């Protein structure tokens, strides 16, 4: 048969099949496809942004043409040029001066002429040099201007030029023709070199002094992922001569030894004088370095779709999203850059751009030890990688091509180099649930716009994100993935990294990234202001014998560049912001705050001869005056001559005044990377993410997200299941449509290879198929495929009920315990919801977990199931000696015994005054206050337009100054139904003495009003009537838009992106047990301490026995008595008990699974918090790992990051904490807490702004600290673990190949922390950057199997140690010595010839510092003890002066080597409320937590086994469904099943009234 006929038939066959499938699929009616409704851009795009646009291909071509015709010298195409030629190295846009642009944008000035910057290499001149020309005007240039001298103060010497692609080719040719042939037998016999089997990686810089151009090349097996296959051979090539014929080998390194040249190596080899370490030949796919999926594709992952199309607009280089607009471009050298970022039309940032990415390596091989890559010189923009739909960015993102001209005369296009998308982050941006005063819920899902590009420079892939949030915050974030670079493992290699393969050393290195942020906050002229916190000692105004330590706001204007330059390791004020000249409504300077997240390692010692070239990396933040002549912090010429840097950032800082000037912030973020086996094949992005946030700080008058169309608000009075009332309830109607997935296309390999015939044919077929499919869709409109089919996953670990050993008590069990107690204690018990203090009652019943040993015997050892027991807390007020008693009651379900455990647990009875305040007690207090208010009717009428019945109170805690006190300040507020009264103080506060068991004896001992203290309400009234009181009249707020209201200010719009699971959830939940992709977790909720997880296993191995929340502390400062005495310990209120129902679509994704929790507290009847825990898989819209290879071979591999999340949200009076526990597919666990809800506030008066910011007419947002404490009982490879710290140090050494020169090299220091005191890290001290829990056994490469703990937090000191209550909240106190990284201990040097030794481990030698204060710990590791189950106690809140549990006592310097260990982790942040905290604090930037990451635990990254892996190469068709499952997506699309919206959160509120109701 004729080929053509065959093809035609084939096509016809396909067409028929498609048509049939199409008809079959669309049988039955189902929702139609999602209708794209293009958004109206709020800011119309008028072409002005083009002033920032990259050059178009036409413009580039014009510039090249112009230069060729105008320079009067011959120009060779840079892709072919010899060093001795002239060529155009690159052409990029030359942006006009800022003043000119602003005249155009803001002042009606003319459009600045468009110009280009051309970099020319003049090798063919008497004085070879690099010259930069500005060429203009475009599109048809008529002039060029040499700007080299003006920019750099002189000509740029030729040796500084970045290495062109062609120079690398010439070097490759040099290797083939001259290097390898000089050692024929060695190459053939040892290297098994066949002409193509080796690949080389360049080191940089290239020498030791200015003028050098001698580069180490490291040789690898030329297989997929060759970066991990070093062969031990490295060659130093001197390619400085312009005559390629003069290039020479100046040194050779093989397996630890140096040789003069290849000939010497050859003769040594031939004579048998070298030690050969032959590397087994790897298969072409690289074996362990391969990114090919190891598991077949399984169920479809969750992904997002846009029910009504994108809600952003993208036109040319301009993006608009909600109130945001900005322009973007891609610099060939520095990468992604954003301009003219505006919110609501007002410019916030003029320029936000990447400047440089630096990596400094340590190794015992010459290439590795001399590598300090400055990626800008290679071209961060030029190496932008074509993005893959569905892995690199969401499938439905918008993709933008980039054009550039560099290293060639041809214009290159990178397809899909940028992506833009809106991402539903699956969590609330803000939310509050109210059951105090009135029942309502308000919230806003966090849906943000992301602009992303990914740069692949050689081995590494950097993911660059710019994120725009609905609250006016911008985030810049960089994540690292791709291949780590490696050295040949030999000798003392373990000083420089971990062994990750037979011959592979993953070398220690730093990643540092520099950004330029040209903020223009409320205009061009800004100042830099720092806010922070200090404790001040004050006498309690109402009780002058007593002292109070209160946080106070410190403020400082940083008025010179020197003051504004913060070194990497120095402390930075926790609030630092660009302040405008203008003020917001509340009188504060409008500002934008910079918040940096970074774990950077030191860059290089300043003594280094090349340090100035990278001196930007000295500073995590430096603010300088903006100058047109300081456009970038570095130069592409710095890489090849760092010894005479063309641009030295340090020179920018010359102590100029920076008040009221145009300022630029230069920000460095980074992390230390010690590669470990899980970096094989790729580094995962989990935990390797750094960057910064720009957040409004008093810039607005309130949180601008209140104007979002996505806001949700409903009250118990409304029918919130009705679509008209609640837009989320509309989703089943508006969003149950078939997502429209375009066909998968990928052009990433196109530029690099010619298309073969086969590809063409397949493409043709695909095209035809697509046409047919489209026709089919068109024909069958309204009859699209049906809804998604739920295919329940097979649980990987069959659930056998064992997890129930950790289960919370069931309602039946709770009822049984109550019944048993009522019948067995022999004393009358009153229901706690009605009990007076002088009654006996059951305060709470919770599960009493069996001892760990017993549980492990049951789970692992075949032991019997431990008896199920309960812990009952009883208040015995009706006894001679009133007290709190704890009983263990068992066995369940029908108890027969109870055991008093109080003495055993606490060493004595718990005094009655320590008991938490119950709801019924608050009711009695409220009645008392109500009664007292009647004594001041005239005052109340005038001050607050109130008769006293329409006010709300807020309790403070603790309650006094010494053990036994029970006197609480209550703050009074205007209560408006449906708003957060917490922000409407009226200035009145009362001190209630409620210690007596007889309620009738309670009284008000103090009254505070507007800065003055009175002994009673009557006295206040008297003073008022006498006209001696200054009254601030606070109007009674009337309408629903009063300050604090969460009602959306704008009508709902199109629904944002939603996540759905085409084949249903991929996790399975049974009882209290979840399994997901190798994970298995038991969960529970303690009524006091909140969510807790047990027996967390990954691939059947237990990693964590217990992971639980312990406590949340909020500590306030104020000039009002309630505020200044507040130190809330939320556990005593009930973190778990107050975790209420979650709202679908805001608190958790709409399609999440929701679980009920039951508890018994302050009542004899068990209560249920419906849907109060949610579990879901979240599409992070980010690659977990990826690499794009255009070196040696063309392929792409990647894995989407999809995370299992377990979440609860606790509403503790005003605050809402979002508790997240996340499980990643690389074996990492992430724990995070976000704070939202209402701030608590004080009445603004006097010197209030010393304690916060004014946020309303009479409202002071009081500063406070949030601290959250977690318990992590890790069991890494068994129960017995040790703690190891690793960090980097620098050592100076003579270059082994050039002894007259020296270099500074990073090395890896390892410390074992052997005692509890060494493992207790105060809040203010740095943690070693790598801290890991190690098991007893090594992994395949001899490293102890470990999990690393990485804390992400920015806490401050909690309390001065002199405070009498410090011990209650200290969760530890340092008493003796401490082990810190970087403390002077010279490394023991190992000679290169020394045989491989064991892994070096340093012991920590003890006392290094003894600070004058005791601090709480950010981390303390202790021996696990059954009698130390929690770090705090519910009794600590009301008697912090005699803490029932003092965590300090846990740390008593016991040995922690090879023991069962617990890590106690404290995370937190300083919160200085500002206008944007009204109505709610937003979660953006108010999130802290920690990671537990495998560290040499596995032999390679376990995510290689994920069924979601994607891989295709130029040989494997990317667009065929058979080879790339992403390509199946369009056909597999189905309409999500969205259940009707339900919410029962208001139904169950017959709870005992929580604190606050009046
Ligand atoms: Cu806060």
Write the topology of this structure.
Layout: H1 3-25, H2 57-70, E1 86-94, H3 98-106, E2 115-122, E3 129-136, E4 143-146, H4 148-152, E5 156-157, H5 165-179, H6 184-190, E6 198-202, E7 214-221, E8 230-238, E9 248-254, E10 257-259, H7 262-270, E11 303-305, E12 312-315, E13 318-321, E14 324-331, E15 335-343, E16 346-361, H8 366-369, E17 372-374, H9 375-378, E18 398-406, E19 412-434, E20 440-457, E21 460-468, E22 474-482, E23 486-488, E24 497-501, E25 504-507, E26 509-519, E27 525-540, E28 543-558, E29 565-567, E30 575-583, E31 589-597, E32 619-625, E33 661-673, E34 689-697, E35 712-715, H10 731-734, H11 757-779, H12 811-824, E36 840-848, H13 852-860, E37 869-876, E38 883-890, E39 897-900, H14 902-906, E40 910-911, H15 919-933, H16 937-944, E41 951-955, E42 967-974, E43 985-993, E44 1003-1009, E45 1012-1014, H17 1017-1025, E46 1058-1060, E47 1068-1070, E48 1073-1076, E49 1079-1086, E50 1090-1098, E51 1101-1116, H18 1121-1124, E52 1127-1129, H19 1130-1133, E53 1153-1161, E54 1167-1189, E55 1195-1212, E56 1215-1223, E57 1229-1237, E58 1241-1243, E59 1252-1256, E60 1259-1262, E61 1264-1274, ...
Parallel strand pairs: 63-67
Antiparallel strand pairs: 1-2, 1-18, 2-3, 3-4, 3-5, 6-7, 7-8, 8-9, 9-10, 11-46, 12-13, 13-14, 14-15, 15-16, 16-17, 16-26, 18-19, 19-20, 20-21, 20-35, 21-22, 22-34, 23-25, 24-25, 26-33, 27-28, 27-30, 27-33, 29-32, 30-31, 31-34, 32-33, 36-37, 36-53, 37-38, 38-39, 38-40, 41-42, 42-43, 43-44, ...
Bound molecules: copper (II) ion.
């Amino acid at each position: 048969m004729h080929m053509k006929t065959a093809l035609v038939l084939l096509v016809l066959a396909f067409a028929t099949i498609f048509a049939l499938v199409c008809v079959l699929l669309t049988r039955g009616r189902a929702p139609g496809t999602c209708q794209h409704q293009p958004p109206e851009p709020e800011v119309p795009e008028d072409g002005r942004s083009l002033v920032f646009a990259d050059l178009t291909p036409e413009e580039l071509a014009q510039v090249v043409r112009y230069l060729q015709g105008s320079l009067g010298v011959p120009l060779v195409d840079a892709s072919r040029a010899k060093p001795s030629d002239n060529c155009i190295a690159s052409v990029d846009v030359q942006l006009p001066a800022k003043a000119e642009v602003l005249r155009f944008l803001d002042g009606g000035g003319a459009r600045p002429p468009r110009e280009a910057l051309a970099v020319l290499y003049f090798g063919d001149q008497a004085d070879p040099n690099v010259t930069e020309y500005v060429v203009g005007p475009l599109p048809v240039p008529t002039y060029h201007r040499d700007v080299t001298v003006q920019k750099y103060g002189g000509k740029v010497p030729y040796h500084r030029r970045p290495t062109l692609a062609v120079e690398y080719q010439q070097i490759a040719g040099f290797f083939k023709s001259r290097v390898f042939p000089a050692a024929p037998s060695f190459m053939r016999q040892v290297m098994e070199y066949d002409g193509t089997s080796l690949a080389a990686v360049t080191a940089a810089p290239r020498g030791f002094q200015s003028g050098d151009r001698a580069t180490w090349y490291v040789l690898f097996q030329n297989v997929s992922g060759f970066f991990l296959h070093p062969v031990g051979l490295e060659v130093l090539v001197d390619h400085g001569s312009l005559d390629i014929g003069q290039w020479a080998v100046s040194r050779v390194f093989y397996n630890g030894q140096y040789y003069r040249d290849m000939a010497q190596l050859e003769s040594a080899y031939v004579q048998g004088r070298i030690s050969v370490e032959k590397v087994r030949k790897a298969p072409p796919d690289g074996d362990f370095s391969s990114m090919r999926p190891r598991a077949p594709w399984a169920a479809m992952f969750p992904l997002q779709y846009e029910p009504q199309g994108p809600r952003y607009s993208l036109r040319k280089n301009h993006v608009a999203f909600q109130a945001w607009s900005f322009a973007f471009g891609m610099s060939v050298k520095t990468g992604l850059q954003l301009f003219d970022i505006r919110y609501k039309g007002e410019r916030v940032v003029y320029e936000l751009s990447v400047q440089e990415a630096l990596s400094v390596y340590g190794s015992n091989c010459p290439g590795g030890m001399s590598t300090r890559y400055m990626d800008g010189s290679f071209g961060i923009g030029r190496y932008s990688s074509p993005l893959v739909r569905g892995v690199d960015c969401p499938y439905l993102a918008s993709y933008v091509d980039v054009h550039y001209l560099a290293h060639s005369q041809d214009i290159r296009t990178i397809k899909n180099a940028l992506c833009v998308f809106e991402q539903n982050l699956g969590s609330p941006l803000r939310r509050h649930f109210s059951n105090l005063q009135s029942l309502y819920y308000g919230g806003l899902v966090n849906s943000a716009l992301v602009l992303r590009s990914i740069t692949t420079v050689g081995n590494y892939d950097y993911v660059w994100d710019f994120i725009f949030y609905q609250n006016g915050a911008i985030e810049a974030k960089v994540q690292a993935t791709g291949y780590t670079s490696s050295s040949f493992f030999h000798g003392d290699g373990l000083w420089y990294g971990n062994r990750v393969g037979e011959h592979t050393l993953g070398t220690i290195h730093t990643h540092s990234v520099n950004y330029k942020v040209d903020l223009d906050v409320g205009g061009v002229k800004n100042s830099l202001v720092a806010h922070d916190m200090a404790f001040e000692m004050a006498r309690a105004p109402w009780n002058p014998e007593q002292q109070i330590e209160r946080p106070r706001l410190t403020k400082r204007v940083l008025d010179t560049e020197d003051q504004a330059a913060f070194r990497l390791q120095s402390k930075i004020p926790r609030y630092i912001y660009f302040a405008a000249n203008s003020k917001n409504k509340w009188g504060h300077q409008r500002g934008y705050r910079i918040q940096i997240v970074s774990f950077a390692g030191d860059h290089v010692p300043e003594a280094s001869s090349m340090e100035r070239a990278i001196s930007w990396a000295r500073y995590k933040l430096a603010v300088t005056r903006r100058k047109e002549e300081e456009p970038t912090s570095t130069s592409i010429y710095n890489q090849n001559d760092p010894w005479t840097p063309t641009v030295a950032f340090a020179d920018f800082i010359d102590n100029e005044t920076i008040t009221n000037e145009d300022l630029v912030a230069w920000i460095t973020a980074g992390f230390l990377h010690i590669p470990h086996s899980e970096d094989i094949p790729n580094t995962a992005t989990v935990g390797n993410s750094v960057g910064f946030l720009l957040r409004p700080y008093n810039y607005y008058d309130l949180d601008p997200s209140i104007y979002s169309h996505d806001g949700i608000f409903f009250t118990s009075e409304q029918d919130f299941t009705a679509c008209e009332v609640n837009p989320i309830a509309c989703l089943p109607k508006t969003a149950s449509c078939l997502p429209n997935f375009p066909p998968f296309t990928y052009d990433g390999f196109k530029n690099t290879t010619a298309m073969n015939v086969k590809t063409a044919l397949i493409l043709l077929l695909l095209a035809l198929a697509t046409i047919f499919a489209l026709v089919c869709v068109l024909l069958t409109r309204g009859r699209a495929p049906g809804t998604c089919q739920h295919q329940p996953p097979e649980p990987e670990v069959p659930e056998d009920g064992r997890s129930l050993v950790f289960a919370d008590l069931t309602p039946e069990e709770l009822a049984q315990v109550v019944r048993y107690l009522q019948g067995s204690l022999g004393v009358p018990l009153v229901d706690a919801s009605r009990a007076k203090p002088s009654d006996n009652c059951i305060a709470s019943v919770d599960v009493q977990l069996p001892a760990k040993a017993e549980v492990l015997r049951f789970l692992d050892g075949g032991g019997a199931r431990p008896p199920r027991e309960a812990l009952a807390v009883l208040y015995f007020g009706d006894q001679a000696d009133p007290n709190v008693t704890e009983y263990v009651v068992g066995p369940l379900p029908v108890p027969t015994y109870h055991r008093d455990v109080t003495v055993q647990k606490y060493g004595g009875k718990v005094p009655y005054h320590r008991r938490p305040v119950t709801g019924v007690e608050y009711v009695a207090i409220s009645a008392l206050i109500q009664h007292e208010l009647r004594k001041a009717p005239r005052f109340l009428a005038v001050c607050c337009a109130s008769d006293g019945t329409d006010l709300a109170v807020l309790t403070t805690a603790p309650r006094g100054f010494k053990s036994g006190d029970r006197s609480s300040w209550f703050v009074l507020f205007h209560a408006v139904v449906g708003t957060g009264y917490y922000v409407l103080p009226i200035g009145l506060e009362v001190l209630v003495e409620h210690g007596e068991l007889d309620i009738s004896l309670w009284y008000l001992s103090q009254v505070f009003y507007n800065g003055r203290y009175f002994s009673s309400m009557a006295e206040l009234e008297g003073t008022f009537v006498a006209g001696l009181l200054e009254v601030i009249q606070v109007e009674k707020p009337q309408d629903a838009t009063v300050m604090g209201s969460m009602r959306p200010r704008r009508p709902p719009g199109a629904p944002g992106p939603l996540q759905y699971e085409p084949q249903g959830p991929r996790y399975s939940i049974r009882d209290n047990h979840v399994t997901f992709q190798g994970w298995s977790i038991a969960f529970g909720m303690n009524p006091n301490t909140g969510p807790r997880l047990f027996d967390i296993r990954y691939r059947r191995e237990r990693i964590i026995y217990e992971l639980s929340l312990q406590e949340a502390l909020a500590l306030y400062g104020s000039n009002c008595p309630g505020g200044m005495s507040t130190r809330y310990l939320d556990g005593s209120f009930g973190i778990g008990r107050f975790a209420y129902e979650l709202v679908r679509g805001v608190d958790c994704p709409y399609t999440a699974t929701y679980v009920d929790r039951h508890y018994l507290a302050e009542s004899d009847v068990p209560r249920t918090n419906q849907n109060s825990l949610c579990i879901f898989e979240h599409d992070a819209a980010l690659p977990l790992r990826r690499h794009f290879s255009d070196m040696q071979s063309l392929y792409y591999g990647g894995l989407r990051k999809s995370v299992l999340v377990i979440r609860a949200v606790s509403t503790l009076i005003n605050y809402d904490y979002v508790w997240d526990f996340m499980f990643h597919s690389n074996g990492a666990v992430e724990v995070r807490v976000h704070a939202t809800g209402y701030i608590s506030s004080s009445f603004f008066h006097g010197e209030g702004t010393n304690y916060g910011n004014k946020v309303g007419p009479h409202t002071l947002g009081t500063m406070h600290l949030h601290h959250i404490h977690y318990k992590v009982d890790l069991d890494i490879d068994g129960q017995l673990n040790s703690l190891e710290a690793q960090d980097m140090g620098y050592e100076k050494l003579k270059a082994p190949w050039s002894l007259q020169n020296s270099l500074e090299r990073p090395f890896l220091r390892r410390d074992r922390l052997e005692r509890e005191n060494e493992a207790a890290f105060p809040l203010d001290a740095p943690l070693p950057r790598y801290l890991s829990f190690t098991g007893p056994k090594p992994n395949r490469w001899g490293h102890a199997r470990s999990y690393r703990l990485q804390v992400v937090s920015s806490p401050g000191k909690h309390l001065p140690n002199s405070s009498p209550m410090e011990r209650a909240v200290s969760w530890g106190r340092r008493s003796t010595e401490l082990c810190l990284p970087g403390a002077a201990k010279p490394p023991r040097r190992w000679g290169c010839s020394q045989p491989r030794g064991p892994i070096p481990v340093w012991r920590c030698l003890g006392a290094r510092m003894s600070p004058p204060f005791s601090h709480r710990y950010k981390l303390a590791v202790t021996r696990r003890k059954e009698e130390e189950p929690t770090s705090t106690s519910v009794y600590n809140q009301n008697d912090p002066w005699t803490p029932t549990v003092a965590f300090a006592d846990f740390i008593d310097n016991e040995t922690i080597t090879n023991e069962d260990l617990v890590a106690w982790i404290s995370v937190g942040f300083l919160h200085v409320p500002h206008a944007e905290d009204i109505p709610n604090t937003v979660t953006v930037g108010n999130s802290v937590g920690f990671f537990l990451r495998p560290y040499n635990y596995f032999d390679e990254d376990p995510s290689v086994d994920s069924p979601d892996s994607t891989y295709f190469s130029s040989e494997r068709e990317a667009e065929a469904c058979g080879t790339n499952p992403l390509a199946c997506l369009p056909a597999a699309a189905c309409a999500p099943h969205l259940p009707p919206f339900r919410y029962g959160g208001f139904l169950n509120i017959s709870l005992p009234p929580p604190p606050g109701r009046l």
